[in-house]
Design brief:
The complex is a heterodimer. In chain A, the strands form two sheets. Chain A has a six-stranded mixed β-sheet with strand order 6-7-8-3-9-10, with helices on both faces. In chain A, strands 2-1-4-5 form a four-stranded antiparallel β-sheet, covered by helices on one side. Chain A contains seven helices and ten strands. By secondary structure, chain A is α/β, with parallel strands linked by helices. Chain A has helices at residues 51-58, 81-91, 107-116, 122-135, 151-163, 181-196, 208-212, and strands spanning 5-17, 22-35, 40-44, 66-71, 74-75, 92-95, 169-173, 201-204, 216-221, 224-227. In chain A, a hairpin with a 4-residue loop joins strand 1 (5-17) and strand 2. Helix content of chain A is 33%, strand content 27%. Chain B starts with 21 loop residues before the first helix and ends with a helix. In chain B, strands 1, 3, 4, 5, 6, 7, 8, 9, 11 and 12 form a ten-stranded mixed β-sheet that branches. In chain B, a hairpin with a 5-residue loop joins strand 7 (188-192) and strand 8 (198-207). Chain B is an alpha+beta fold. Chain B is elongated. Chain B is built from 14 helices and twelve strands. Chain B folds into two domains: 21-70 and 286-420, no CATH class; 79-252, no CATH class. Classes of the chains: A alpha/beta, B alpha+beta. At the A-B interface, helix 2 and helix 3 of A face helix 1, helix 11, helix 12 and helix 14 of B.
């Protein structure tokens, strides 16, 4: 069975400074990481450990300086920006800490947004968006603007927006970071349910309680995997 | 486990590939502009004014040309005017127009109206003499020259003209000068030639005053009498010679071609430069080139306001890109390519300027209707589809041109940076 995420020797180096004196920052060094299908993995580590950089590379928002990365069996090396955008649209569903809903669009249209870039017709798009919102128990908030929703509801809209893509990988970055504990439980409950349905989830968090709900914890320190890189 | 997950082959969500429908960008553009109604309106105001100015300028120019043409036809018709060249030391009498010339002209597709004129005096009060022009014409002139219209009475007939009878038709001004506040028809006027000879003529008709902005040009105080009578009585008129000839063109005649033919006739007989040959068409062309120059000048000023409007659009689009950095980051994270982001902002700019263009054209049409309804000179409402198309094309191009840079900036945003942007 093809792993969803398969990384070997991934390194990310940021260069800065002038041509005379270049400063190299090794954000990631030799990362080996595998996430199998239907796995629920938590990515943990102190700030500055390279969590965000790793998440960006996994989500194809960034590319490795060195090393191999296959997403759902698809090698990423050598793909151009447009190809990466298309694969991102097809295979990766993001859930961000700050929700990132477009303020002028209703919940329904926010959820339908990723499908715009896939060329799905409007009625089909709205049908799937409605189903996705119903799956996160927001079937009664379709025409609400983000400003009319609570934090927990906003994050559920964002989750529906990721689910509507039917991604290979659900990539969540501190999804409860902006929520109170009640909304937090609600969102985590949804992730648990999605895991039971067989979705592949990678969650970046620094909260040990959230990490404990995952099947496996990958720990990062100073740009290296110190624990849990392989299934 | 979901069996569909087993084969991560390319998805078949969309048989046409993962290209988005270009109409989506228009919908998004309207959504975004509608969300910022006041700002969008202010941003496109410059374009509105620019397009309004360009459209109004072109159309007013065309309307002025049409008005001038119409007025000119009312006073002069489509005609060619031939007279001896007074310049270059030619004496008036050395180059008259003769009967033989008239006969040659009669072969052309025009009605030939040979005429002569002379100065004459009348007594406004006992002992006070004033000047007036006496013009010798063929009979039944209104039939030959459609610009001559009788207001009351009649024009003298061809047989009266041939017989040289003592009859006269007065211009509107002449009637007012000779018979202020009185009915002229049926009265007898007494004229004195400069040499002292006296003639008495019976008034048979009064002409309509010429209309339009050129009316003043034709509003001379003139008495029209049979050519034969003038030859018989004037001390300086010679039988068989005329001072000028008007060729009133038939509808099918080509003015330029006939002008050439007239020129050839006179040049073959008398050599170059002795006669002045002018057609109303050349006069019209001169006027048209003047309006064209005016139009070009005013159009350049209007173009300048379009430039300023375009810079305003660029400014507002740059602000919009900065403001929506996170939106752009999100769209890219959700799978928008740089090309799609660029297209979105470019279309937004074009939609903005195009709406400004439509508004400008509507305002211009309103002004033109108002002008047509209130200013007598502008009688015909002209707003060419070509002008509208030009105005809209220019406004779309302004949007495209000034939207390129902001759109490129949006497209170049790094999604990671953009999502972090506060």
């Amino acid at each position: 069975m093809t792993p969803v995420v398969q990384m070997s020797g991934v390194t990310k180096v940021y260069r800065s400074g002038s041509s005379v004196r270049t400063v190299e920052v090794h954000a990631l060094s030799g990362i080996d990481l595998t996430v199998q299908q239907a796995e629920y993995v938590a990515l943990m580590g102190p700030s500055g450990s390279g969590k965000s950089t790793l998440m960006h590379i996994i989500g194809l928002l960034d590319t490795p300086t060195e090393g191999e990365y296959n997403l759902g069996g698809q090698p990423v090396r050598g793909l151009n920006e447009g190809q990466l955008a298309r694969i991102r649209n097809q295979r990766v569903g993001f859930v961000f800490q700050a929700f990132f809903l477009l303020p002028r669009l209703t919940a329904l249209h926010n959820v339908a947004l990723p499908l715009v870039y896939r060329g799905v017709s409007t009625p089909e798009r709205l049908k799937r968006a409605r189903q996705a919102l119903e799956s996160v128990n927001l079937g009664d908030r379709l025409d609400h603007l983000p400003s009319e929703l609570s934090g927990g509801q906003k994050q559920r809209v964002a989750l529906a927006r990721a689910l509507v893509q039917e991604p290979d990988l659900l990539l969540a970055d501190e999804p409860t970071g902006n929520l109170d504990s009640k909304s937090s439980d609600e969102i985590m409950g949804l992730f648990d349910a999605l895991h039971r349905q067989g979705k592949t989830i990678l969650m970046v968090t620094h909260d040990p309680d959230l990490g404990a709900r995952a099947q496996r914890i990958v720990r990062l320190r100073d740009g290296r995997v110190v624990d849990g890189g392989m299934a | 486990m979901n069996p569909a997950r087993e084969a991560p082959a390319p998805r078949t969500n969309n048989p046409a590939g993962s290209r988005m429908n270009p109409l989506e960008n228009f919908r998004m553009a309207f959504e975004s502009l509608w969300g910022n109604k006041l700002r969008s309106f202010l941003a496109l105001l410059g374009i509105v004014i620019g397009v309004f100015a360009v459209t109004a300028m072109i159309s007013l120019g065309q309307m002025a040309t049409a008005g001038i043409t119409q007025d000119l036809e009312a006073i002069a018709g489509r005609s060619i005017f031939v007279q001896p060249n007074f310049g270059e030391g030619h004496d008036f009498n050395t180059a008259p127009i003769r009967d033989v010339d008239i006969r040659a002209l009669q072969a052309l597709p025009a009605r030939v109206i040979p005429q002569l004129f002379t100065n004459i005096q009348y007594e406004s009060r006992p002992g006070v003499r004033r000047s007036m022009q006496l013009q010798g014409t063929p009979g039944d002139l209104p039939r030959l020259d459609p610009t001559i219209r009788v207001a009351s009475g009649r024009y003298f007939t061809e047989s009266e003209a041939r017989g040289g009878l003592a009859v006269v038709v007065l211009s509107d001004r002449a009637a007012a000068d000779l018979f202020p506040g009185r009915q002229a028809i049926g009265q007898v006027v007494r004229f004195f030639y400069p040499g002292g000879a006296r003639i008495e003529l019976t008034v048979v008709g009064v002409l309509e005053p010429p209309g339009g902005i050129f009316g003043g040009l034709g509003a001379a105080s003139t008495a029209y009498a049979p050519t034969q009578l003038v030859w018989n009585t004037s001390p300086d008129a010679r039988r068989g010679q005329y001072d000028f000839v008007i060729l009133s063109l038939k509808p099918e005649a080509d003015a330029r071609q006939v002008t050439q033919q007239v020129r050839r006739i006179f040049e073959a007989r008398y050599g170059e430069g002795r006669y002045q040959i002018q057609s109303t068409e050349t006069f019209q062309q001169t006027l048209q080139s003047i309006t064209l120059i005016l139009q070009a000048l005013l159009g350049a000023i209007a173009g300048l306001s379009l430039l300023v409007g375009g810079i305003g659009i660029m400014n507002i689009m740059l602000v919009s890109v900065t403001e929506r950095t996170r939106e752009i980051g999100l769209r890219k994270a959700l799978g928008a390519t740089s090309g799609q982001v660029r297209q979105q902002f470019l279309i937004e700019a074009v939609v903005l300027t195009l709406m400004g263009g439509i508004l400008g054209v509507v305002l211009a049409a309103g002004l033109l209707l108002l002008v047509t309804a209130t200013v007598p000179f502008f009688q015909i409402f002209i707003l060419n589809p070509a002008t509208i198309l030009l105005a809209l094309a220019v406004s779309a191009l302004v949007g495209l041109f000034f939207g390129v840079w902001p759109a490129a900036r949006a497209a170049a945003l790094d999604p990671i940076e953009a999502l972090r942007y506060e």
